[in-house]
Amino acid sequence: MTETYEKIKWPNNARCAVMLSFDLDGNTIWANGNRSYPGGENFIRSISIGDYGPKRAVPRILDLLAKYALPATFFTPAKIVEENPALLKQIDQAGHEIGHHGYQHERFVDLTRDEQKAIILRSQDIFQQIIGKKARGYRTPSGDWSRETAGLLHELGFLYSSSMRGDDRPYRTVIDGQVTDFIEMAPKWDLDDFVQFGYNLFPAEPAGQDRISGIEQVYNNFKQEFDGYYQYGLCFVLLMHPQIIGKPGRLLMLEQLLQHMKSHQDIWFATGEEIAEWWRANY
């Protein structure tokens, strides 16, 4: 359910909100995809694409965020948290948010309610053990969730999700016919770097091939979308993957985009948790 407002009142008279988000999937999406092929567990090259994220790209991204004093949200499968505890502690200690993204990037739409609950709770225990707190935000792995997921997350105390696609403002989720204080902040495929740049020869990604977009083209797409969100006073959710956006040339593109956004004096850069808390209190 969404509501229409002539003008959203953001904190400190900001014109628009910006949520920089990174899906720190590591090798989980490639390992999951490889399982559908005989002997797929031996496809080392595709696994290495994901490994690039935590091993090489995240430190560069953290440096870039620190350079511009910007907060971000890292949605991370708990398996990647387990495998990279020092890195996740570094992200947390830098003031960024770490959000829930399944245990190993499971497709929640394929799971029963009990199976989903077990994954959520297991992952929250790992968050608690490694960074000393549970996640309050959730992004569904693999692009969808089941009819039960939102209610389950709300029941388990989550503040918000950034999973659906149906608005460009935060909104209160309707669960079992009731408007709740479980907030949704929808990202968009056209603001997802994987859709622009994600590629592997075999297993084929995308299935029909023919996709590595030009960096300038993607920059112009992202910039013009931001300009539109700014004009209408909306919530700009940029969905990125360290293994994709963290390549040297693309990171320069991201820096250029950050410079463009920061050239506006009335932008509220915030984590998902901060935006959801503010929306819950004010709308």
From TrEMBL:
Q: Domain named NodB homology: which ranges?
A: 43-270
Q: Biological process (GO) annotations?
A: carbohydrate metabolic process
Q: Which CDD domains match?
A: CE4_HpPgdA_like
What are this entry's molecular-function GO terms? Answer: hydrolase activity, acting on carbon-nitrogen (but not peptide) bonds
Query: What does the record list as coiled-coil region(s)?
Result: none
User: Do you know which SUPFAM superfamilies this protein is assigned to?
Assistant: Glycoside hydrolase/deacetylase
Supply the Pfam families for this chain.
Polysacc_deac_1
Q: Which superkingdom heads the taxonomic lineage of this protein's source?
A: Bacteria
| PANTHER family, A to Z | POLYSACCHARIDE DEACETYLASE FAMILY PROTEIN (AFU_ORTHOLOGUE AFUA_6G05030)
- Protein name from the UniProt record: Peptidoglycan/xylan/chitin deacetylase, PgdA/CDA1 family
Record organism: Desulforamulus aeronauticus DSM 10349
